[in-house]
Amino acid sequence: MHPADEVLGGLQAVFKSLDDVSGFLAVLVAVVTSIAAFRQLRVWREETAGKTNYQVALNYRRSLFQLHDAIVDLRYPVVRPNEVNKDCDEKHEPTPEPGSSQDEWDAYGDRQCVNDLENELKRKRWLINLRWAEMMTKYRVFQDQLLEARVHGIREDRFCVELDVFLNKVSGMFRLRFAEMQDNVWDAREALKPEKEKRVTPPLRIADSERALLQQVGRLPPEEWSTEKSEILDVDQLEIDLKAEIDRLDAPVRQYMLEHR
Fold first, then answer.
1. Eight-class DSSP state of 37
2. Is the distance from CB of 216 to CB of 209 less than 8 angstroms?
3. pLDDT, tens digit, for every residue of 67-116?
4. Using H for helix, E for strand and C for coil, what is the string for 66-94?
5. pLDDT reading at 7 higher than 50
6. How far is CA 96 from the centre of its chain?
7. Closest C-alpha among 136, 126, 161 to residue 249
8. Would you put residue 133 in left (φ > 0), alpha (ψ -120 to 50) or beta?
């Protein structure tokens, strides 16, 4: 073999070896890059999932606190401008003519007192129905967030039975109060009747019937609860019981957020 052919063959062998090495290096780089990209993707997914779960927990707590405020707001002692029922058909007695006797003025005052009781009942019912509808909107939002929390494994329970029972008792509290106010209206009307037109036996009390019904269906509120709240910052038994229920619903999610910050 000619010496030049030997040199050429040696060079070809060297180049082939270099090609094999570069190909190996290229494969090695590709493998390392893939592993790094996979790890980065896994870290990104974990971070994204953590952020998503944290946001779900945040939305859950926000909706829960908004529901709490809406329940407290049911008994807010001040009627806001947007809560005034301008279409309320209130009853008012015509004012006696000038020169009317004292008896006519007294009778007018008695009739107007009855009207005032009835008008107050109408206003209170309208106001509570308005606020109750707003509260139920917040409650439905909370139920949606509860479902979302279950999907993400943040909460396991399906229903908030205790909260439903609590709201049923709040509803029963207002129903009982309205029944008592209706009884007061009827008593006032009865007192205006002439003696011969008054009932011999006392009329059936609506409040007694309502109380018995609420007792039967488990919606009778505690005696310490009241539909009235004289001061905005007062904290009575109803709000104490409400806070305990809200804290019970909030505790597991609050703990989750503390552990996943």
1. H
2. no
3. 999 999 999 888 888 888 877 767 777 787 888 888 888 887 888 888 88
4. HHHHHHHHCCCCCCCHHHCCCCCCCCCCC
5. no
6. 50
7. 161
8. alpha
